[in-house]
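Appendix B, Record 12. Input sequence as logged:
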Amino acid sequence: MELPGELRYSSEHEWVRIEEGRAVIGITDFAQDALGDVVYVQLPDVGLDVVADSSIAEIESTKSVSEVYSPVTGKVVEVNRGLEDAPEQVNIDPYGAGWIFVVELADPGEVDGLMDAPAYRTLVES
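Logged structural output:
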């Protein structure tokens, strides 16, 4: 299981990478592996105001449909339209081309409340 050290993680299995004051968000390697082959990603709407821990998207796999939660509060400013034609990128490259959406943070300090890689590893291994 890959867990990049520079990312932060939620208990709902999303990762967050801060880039220029914005939170790039996707699902973790652990989550994509548990889902199986991703066949569809329902993206959130750009401009949507989100509250931390709220469901804002769905991922459909050959096994099930899962909610995607925003680990932070703010406004969705970008979505990964590439997933519309290639949802399998969530499986192939969950921390790169498989990102799902970007949030303009309402409170940048909120990210500090998320787990670091060792804490997330402990969560998924317990």
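The first helix runs from residue 29 to 35.
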